[in-house]
Structure formats: C-alpha cells, structure tokens
C-alpha cells in the first residue's frame, strides 16, 4: 500500500524519500531502536484507551475559473444576498406594486386663472355660424349675410370676430390679434398644454385665419384688392348702422356694407403676418399650414406691389377715425420676418435686413412712441422677432449688421419700460402710460408686457443674465418684475382694488360698453333704437362677458364703470390678445415649459440648414 498524498504533486517523490529513510535506519543504535519501539508500543496502548485520534476537518474549495474560494465563503455570500433581497428589495417591489394616486398639479396661479377667462372672451366675440360647444350661452348665430355685397367672394364674408362693443369687423386689428395669439402659442405651446388651453387657443386662431383667407382671393397668386372691414359707423350719424343702433349681433337688421381697398401695404402686411404665424402653429396639419403659407405669400406680394403703397385707411372715413394706420414700413418688417420663419425663403430675410428698410421705418431713430408695441406700430415686435434669429441661430453675413441693429434697438426699448429711466410716465398706482393718458391704455400695457417677458425668456434660453441700460445692468428678473407689476395692476393691485378683467376677482366692471353683454338674451328682438334702454340703464349687464379686459383707468387711476365711457369700459380684440399673450408668458403654471425649456428652434424648422445651430458666445451679443 502507498501512503496517501495530502498535498498533491508526484507520487514518485514520496517513494524515493521512503527508501532513503530505510537506509539511514540501518545505522541506528539498537538500544535506541528498542526504546523507540517501546515508545511506539506505549502510544499504541494509549490509543486503545483513548480511541483513535480525531481527524481534522478539511476545508472544501470551489474553483470559479479565475479564482478559487472556500465553499463556506460562497454560502455566506449567497445568504447575504438573500437577506438583502428580503429586507430591502422585496419591500421596494411590494411598494411599487401597490397603486398610488398620482399627485395633482400645483394649484394654478392668478395669471392662469385670468388666462382661462381671457380666452373665453374670443368665444363671445365670434361672428357667423357658431359651433355647438362655443361655451357662451347668450350668444348665437349672427352676421350670416355679411359680405353679400361682395359678389366676388363665394359665400360672403361670414365668420371672424367682432372688434369690440359694436358689431363691426375691422380686419386690420383682427389680423394683428391673430398674429399675437399665434406668437404666444408658438413660444409657449407647452404652457398652453400644461394649463389645458392648447386646443382652445388653436381653435380660436383658426376661426380668425379661416375668415382672413376669405378677405382676398387666397387661391390666386396675384390679387388687386382686399376687403378691409364689414360694417360701418358714421360719426354722429342718424341712420341705422353699427354705432347708431344698439343691438345684439343676433338682432342686426340694418345694412352692413363691406369696404374693399386696392392699396393696402399695412393691412396686406398684417394679414400676411397673421397667416404666416398661424402656419407655424398648424404645422401638424400639413394641408392647412400650406394653405396658410400660400395665402400669406399672395397677400404679401399684394402689400409690396409698386404703385399701391398708400396706407389702407387713407381717404377712408369709415376706417380712418377708428383704426388709422400711420405707416406701413413696420408691417413690411414684421410680415417679412414672419414669412421667413414660415417658409425659410431667404428673400424674406434679405428684405427684412436690407438697410433701407429700418431707415424707411425709422427703426433706429430713437423715437419714443416707436418703442411702444401696438396694432399700429409693429416695430418693437418685429425687432424682437429678428433679435430672436440672431440670438438662437446667428446667421452672420450678410444679415448680421441689420440684426445687430435690431437687437440693440430691442434692448433700448426694454430699457424704456422701467420707471427709473423716466421715458414714460406712470400713474401713482403704477400703470405705465404708454399712450400718454389717452383712452384704452391697458391694451398697450399688456402688449408691451408680453414683449418684456418674452425677451427675458429669450435671454435665459441662451444663458444671458441681462443687459445694460447705460451703466445700469438690468436682469431678466427685472423685466419679469415689470411685466408682473403691470398684470397685477390689471388684476386688482391698483388704487381702486378692482380687477379690469370681467369675471376675475370679486370686484370688476359691470356696465360694459358692449351691445351683446348689455342686452338681455330673453327672446325679444329689439329694434335699432329699442336697445337704447339697455345702453342707458344703470343696471348691471345681464350677460357676463367673461374674460373681457376693458380699456382701463385714466392717468390718475380713476375709472368710471359706465357704458358711456367707451375709452375706459369697452373691451377690444387687440386688448385681449395682448392680455392672453402676457398672461401665458408670465404664469408659473407649467413652469419649465417656456421657451427656456422647449425646443428653441420651433420656428426654425423651415429655415435653411445653411445657418449654424449653435449660438455665438454671449459676450458677442452686448449692445
């Protein structure tokens, strides 16, 4: 028998060692050998008494390929994993499996509440055959014979919006209102979605653009006229018309003639801007978006036609008194920018940045009133729109020089908003007097508050913290604070502690200069003059014109809630379009969903890829 080899290795080595030991033992002393045998006998005898020696337990190992480990260690690791799963993993799995009620969105701020109401105003101003879900129970179909004298317009001029408290449809401010609404949806679509108004806003825009497409032959490539309005209002007239009569739109029984113009660089430019901006809003509807861009191209061409460049309101008494246009170069700049964003056609941006255009528009002349955005002055809006192109895409030569000029002008316009620089007067209560104390001050306040908020978002989107007004560094928060102060004034933070938006807050105007709101919806059709009693009554309006922003207080913060003070108590499309845009820009509801969080290139999808996507370093944008 061979002895066992506990360590492994060659057995031949063990056998050789045994032979050497035997040879050496041959030389040992016999006495020593006797003693050794006796000792071994003693050990044997002891083993009888004590039993066999206890065998040592052998450690078992597992070869894992790259390492050999004890089996005990493997078992220990395994049970640790099992324990961790039971103590930590299993509770997590169970907790996730239990259905949880998702936390609701944070409560809307006051700006969102006002936004919901402000949009409803447009539902109340609709003309034509109303949808069943219009949401204004005291309104019905009206103006179904509008445009019947326009024999070249198939189906007439049915639809659109009534401008204000009367029943005239002025196409110039209507188009501007649609452009403003579209701009706000383009920049803040995520916010509109967050507050549940995205589809509503788009429906309101489409109601307007569908109508604007009827005001000219939008299927043609060349036109020679455009319809400027439906209805008339003679000053101090004595015959039935839209001012002489006090009727609900549903009860109109007097003539409503149309007004066509063959020269309209301003009106044509504004309608082109409205259709182009809306085409961006509806890019998810390719057919409709294309229809809008084609119509925009046609009417823009008409607006630029040589020999037809006199303002649309010139020598038009039915227009001039109400919506007189003082220039058309601003509409050229405004519409060209929108046409470029909508189509990507570089001829439009080349025109917008041609040095002769800002010169003719007096864009860089530092004229105070030219810094105020309004239905008659698009310069501040156009300059901001073109600044957007420089800030986000930086197209460079040959556009850079003009774009720098527009960007500098925009920064100066923003400086003028602040009371500390004393460009404009403010009431003691804090309202900016952008129109120098004349009637309808709030429509100017909201339009320019929108620009202030938007410029702040543009700067933050490109990581620019602010800009300089002379030696004073102004931050994006300064701009937002200005916009908020103006909106807060409108919503009730004013000396009268009243809201100038109907239905918002507890105290708001109750006697609007508005035929539909003041005349009862009681089944009685009142005559032209039969409605005077509702105009003159001291009773509150029987129909709540929810969301209507009135004209606003005077330069002393005084306000008379009377139907006779139309400069203070009449709402307008333009006013509410600016209000909607300013509210969605400033609201914190859906925060993080502004232009700083969404794709900044939303408007650039049609822009040629020749432009680099990355903006230049912020330092190069200093005015």
UniProtKB/TrEMBL annotation:
Residues 111-583 form the Glycoside hydrolase family domain. Coiled coil: none annotated. Signal peptide: none annotated. PROSITE patterns: GH9_2, GH9_3. GO terms for molecular function: cellulase activity. It comes from the Eukaryota. The active site is at residues 513, 561, 570. Keywords: Carbohydrate metabolism, Cellulose degradation, Glycosidase, Hydrolase, Membrane, Polysaccharide degradation, Transmembrane, Transmembrane helix. InterPro entries: 6-hairpin_glycosidase_sf, 6hp_glycosidase-like_sf, Glyco_hydro_9, Glyco_hydro_9_Asp/Glu_AS, Glyco_hydro_9_His_AS. It holds the Pfam family Glyco_hydro_9. It catalyses: Endohydrolysis of (1->4)-beta-D-glucosidic linkages in cellulose, lichenin and cereal beta-D-glucans. GO terms for biological process: cellulose catabolic process. The chain crosses the membrane at residues 73-94. PANTHER family: ENDO-1,4-BETA-GLUCANASE (PTHR22298). Belongs to the glycosyl hydrolase 9 (cellulase E) family. This is Endoglucanase. It comes from Urochloa decumbens.
């Amino acid at each position: 028998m061979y002895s066992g080899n506990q360590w492994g290795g060659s057995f031949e080595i063990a056998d050789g060692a045994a032979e050497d030991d035997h040879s050496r033992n041959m030389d040992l002393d016999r006495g020593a050998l006797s003693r050794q045998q006796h000792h071994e006998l003693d050990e044997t005898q002891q083993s009888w008494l004590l039993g066999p020696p206890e065998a040592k337990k052998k450690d078992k190992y597992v070869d894992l390929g790259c390492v050999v480990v004890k089996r005990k260690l493997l078992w220990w690791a395994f049970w640790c994993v099992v324990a961790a799963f039971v103590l930590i993993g299993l509770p997590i799995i169970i907790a996730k499996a239990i259905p949880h009620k998702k936390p609701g969105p944070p409560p809307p701020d006051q700006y969102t509440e006002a936004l919901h109401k402000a949009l409803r105003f447009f539902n109340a101003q609709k003309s034509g055959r109303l949808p069943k879900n219009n949401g204004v129970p005291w309104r019905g179909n009206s103006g179904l014979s509008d445009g019947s004298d326009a024999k070249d317009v198939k189906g007439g001029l049915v639809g659109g919006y009534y401008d204000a408290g009367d029943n005239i449809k002025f196409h110039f401010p209507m188009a501007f209102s649609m452009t403003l609404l579209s701009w706000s949806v383009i920049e803040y679509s995520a916010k509109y979605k967050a507050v549940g108004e995205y589809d509503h806003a788009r429906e309101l825009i489409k109601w307007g653009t569908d109508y604007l497409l009827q005001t000219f032959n939008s299927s043609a490539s060349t036109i020679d006229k455009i319809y400027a309005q439906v209805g008339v209002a003679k000053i101090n007239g004595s015959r039935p018309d839209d001012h002489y009569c006090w009727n609900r739109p549903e009860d109109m029984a007097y003539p409503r003639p149309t007004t066509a113009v063959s020269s309209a660089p301003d009106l044509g430019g504004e309608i082109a801007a409205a259709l182009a901006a809306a085409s961006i809003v509806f890019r998810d509807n390719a057919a409709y978006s294309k229809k809008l861009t084609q119509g925009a191209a046609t009417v823009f061409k008409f607006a630029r036609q040589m020999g037809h460049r006199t303002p649309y309101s010139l020598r038009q008494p039915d227009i001039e008194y109400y919506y007189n246009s003082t220039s058309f170069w601003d509409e050229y700049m405004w519409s060209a920018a929108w046409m470029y964003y909508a189509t990507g056609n570089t001829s439009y941006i080349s025109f917008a940045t041609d040095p002769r255009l800002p010169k003719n528009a007096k864009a860089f002349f530092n004229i105070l009133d030219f810094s105020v955005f309004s239905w008659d002055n698009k310069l501040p809006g156009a300059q901001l729109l073109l600044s957007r192109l420089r800030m986000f895409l930086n197209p460079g030569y040959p556009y850079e020089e003009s774009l720098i000029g527009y960007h500098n002008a925009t920064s100066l316009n923003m400086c003028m908003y602040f009371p500390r620089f004393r460009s404009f007067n403010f009431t003691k209560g804090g309202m900016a007097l952008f129109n120098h104390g004349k009637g309808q001050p709030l429509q100017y306040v909201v339009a320019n508050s929108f620009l202030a908020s938007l410029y702040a978002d543009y700067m933050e989107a490109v990581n620019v913290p602010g800009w300089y007004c002379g030696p004073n560094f102004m931050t994006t928060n300064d701009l937002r604070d200005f916009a908020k102060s103006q909106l807060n004034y409108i919503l009730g933070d004013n000396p009268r502690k009243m809201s100038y938006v109907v239905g918002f807050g507890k105290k708001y105007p109750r006697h609007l200069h508005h035929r539909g709101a003041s005349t009862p919806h009681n089944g009685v059709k009142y005559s032209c003059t039969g409605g005077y009693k509702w105009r003159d009554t001291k009773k509150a309006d029987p129909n709540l014109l929810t969301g209507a922003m009135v004209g606003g207080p005077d330069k002393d913060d005084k306000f008379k809630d009377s139907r006779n003070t139309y400069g203070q108590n009449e709402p307008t499309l333009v006013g509410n379009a600016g209000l909607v845009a300013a509210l969605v820009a400033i609201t914190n509801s859906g925060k993080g969903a502004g232009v700083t969080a969404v794709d900044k290139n939303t408007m650039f999808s049609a822009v040629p890829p020749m432009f680099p996507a990355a903006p230049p370093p912020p330092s190069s944008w200093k005015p």
